[in-house]
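Protocol step 4 of 6: structure prediction from sequence.
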Amino acid sequence: MKTNPPCAPASISRRNFLGHAALCAVAMPSLAQTPPWPARPIKIVIGYGPGGAGDATARLLAEGLQKILKQPVIMDYKPGASGMVAADYVTKAPADGYTIHLIDDGALSIGPATRKVNYDPQAFTFLGSPGGLPLVLCVAPGLRVNSVAELVTWVKSNPGTASYATSGVGSLPHLLGEQFKSLVAAELTAVPYKGTGALLPDLMSGRVAFAFPASTGVLSHVKAGSVRALAVTSTQRVSQLPNVPTMAEVGYPQINSIYRSAIVAPPGLPTPIQATLTAALQQITRDAATVSLLEAGGFNVAFLPPDVTKQLFKSELQKWKALISANNLNLSE
């Protein structure tokens, strides 16, 4: 009886060899089959047109991402419905790391609280928040009011005639005005305008008593004395207005909402890409030159990680829904 030599390999049929090869290909996918990321330009979707505060923020973030990721970052403008057109687009985009979105409370909390939207604001892949634009409680320069306490006394002494300006029905300045009205139990009339630029002349002239404009649109007017700043809505003071207290400092910690920005991606973004983008964003918000440029426009830089960012917007959405319901607000134009 013949046997194979001790060192001779066991024979294997061609069919068995091919079968084993196929199993190995399934069980051990080659790393070479996974394309490197990023291998091409990334686009950052903006829910507003060029030239605004959001555009300036996006461009600074894009410049930082280009340096870190070594790929171009292209601006993609999709304005409409306070950012909700862009948000809807991004939820349907491929989750491949080549589409990210600079988004804010217009599409993540205020919009979904005030109207029906076609997307789930919590379904995005959250990458973090770089910070946001505080709002500034400002009064007409001719109003003899120099503090929030004095403003409360004044509005209570003028029931039914005191009014405040908003940048539109259902906007953040409108909701903050209604929150203030509820907290101080005063009779106030909201006067809607089409944006901050439209309301400022009437605020300066005293046609309306006060407003909550964004810091970026009012800093120069505060410094010129054409409006008087009483407080900011951020939890920290604004570097450009160091002598103006926060609403929390003057007794109203509930009024703490800002135009907060977040960077998100489509749902289902792979975890390694998410981690890389989050680390890059955090690095950008630690760059002294970038921080200086952002803060010059009134932006408060304070990076929040993805889970904190997601929970914050969820809480904001619940807060505005509760305010609207409790005060039976009619937010139709």
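Step 5 (inspection) to follow. Residues 1-11, 21-32 have pLDDT under 50 and may be disordered.
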